[in-house]
Amino acid sequence: MSEETYTLPKVWQWDKESGGRFASINRPIAGATHEKELPAGEHDLQLHSLATPNGVKVTILLEELVELGIEDAEYDAYPINIGEGDQFGSGFVAINPNSKIPALLDRSTNPPTRIFESGAILVYLAEKFGQFLPTDPSQRAECMSWLMWQMGSAPYLGGGFGHFYAYAPEKIEYCINRYAMEVKRLLDVLDQHLASNTYLCGDEYTIADMANYAWWGALVLHNIYDASEFLDVASYTNVVRWAEQIEERPAVQRGRRVNRPWGPEETRVVERHSPADFEVAPAD
Ligand SMILES: N[C@@H](CCC(=O)N[C@@H](CS)C(=O)NCC(=O)O)C(=O)O
User: Fold this and answer.
1) Residues 228, 234: contact at Cβ < 8 Å?
2) Nearest-angstrom CA–CA distance, 95 and 87
3) Pocket flag, ligand 1, residue 96 (CB < 6 Å)
């Protein structure tokens, strides 16, 4: 919208949809829109999520923990269809007042612990099971720095670049330039760091890699927003090398399938309750 056609009102009012994909689920108020209880399985850990990058971070960590043989890390994962407004159901809002996936309920504590914000969930699980988060204070600080860097960067990549490049109802050069520049700068930060580091914290694979892989791997390996060529992602060779290395891990491949109601049908694991769910072929 140009200055010629838009006059700033004194006080912004929500009087019409902004247009574009997801416009119908966006609103300027918080809280539940309808009563809806969440389903519950048998494990202590109950995940309510979707296989978007923010969701996949958590399922990768859970699958890595399960792969280590940690039985208490077994979990039930239920899909939240954000396109249909499931995130505004009363049960979901009770575990995430911010109405965004992912959200986790840990019923091994009394009372149960709710955790929202993907970064907080990763730290909670890593600390609970003593894995994928260094204990040495300096290494831990490096890990937390890259984790927070990812949490701070995602809104530029998704909410900024992705929104204006792929979802907005019109292509606005100013917005696309602003966010493409920032995303390329962030890619360069990562690329320069990974030129001399196997993983983000050196030799150790941590939750910082899982969180960053979920977003940057989607960009450099899976053409998220259809923007590979536009952003010339292939030129960030160290990021591509690192993302490919992470994606070879079986737990990462499983984590990417959980709560994913799209993609080839035989790869979908819309609900996950046990490792056997990855083996079940869809019914004819
Ligand atoms: N900072 C949050 C962001 C979560 C987020 O943006 N989730 C999106 C999907 S990737 C969502 O649930 N969107 C639904 C909505 O905005 O209504 C986190 O990392 O957990």
Assistant:
1) yes
2) 10
3) no
CA-nearest of 168, 145, 156 to 231 is: 156
Q: Is 118 in the pocket of ligand 1 (CB under 6 A)?
A: yes
- Whether residue 235 is found in the same domain as residue 268: no
Domain limits at 60? 17-132+256-284
Give the pLDDT confidence of 259-268 residue by residue, as tens digits.
999 999 999 9
Whether 227 is covered by a domain: the verdict is: yes
| Residue 282 pLDDT exceeds 60 | no
Task: For residues 98 and 180, state if they share a domain.
Answer: no
Query: What pLDDT is stored for residue 5 in this prediction?
Result: 79
| Ligand 1 atom showing the smallest separation from residue 85 Cα | 17
Residue 170 maps to which CATH number? 1.20.1050.10
Q: pLDDT category, 220, cuts 50, 70, 90?
A: very high
Amino acid at 9: P
Ligand 1 near 59 CB (within 6 A): no
Q: Render pLDDT for 145-182 as a digit per residue (tens, 0 to 9).
A: 999 999 999 999 999 999 999 999 999 999 999 999 99
